[in-house]
Amino acid sequence: GLVHHKILEALLDQLPKKHHEEFLKKFSAAPHDEGLLSFLKDKTGEVVEEVIRREVDTLAEEILQMFKREK
Fold first, then answer.
1. pTM, rounded to two decimals
2. Gyration radius (Cα) of the chain, Å
């Protein structure tokens, strides 16, 4: 869904393009593999959980704003 898409997009934004294909192959083969977090941390130097948390927070805020506008 939308949340998965946004998180994946945020992670790919942090990941150097030269690693996109390898990551996407690994992700497609085993999307729940916790080794993906290690791969991302190693290749981005980022705290991946924080990248995910920021994206979820941003998305939650966007959804709240959408509901506020519809009232």
1. 0.83
2. 14
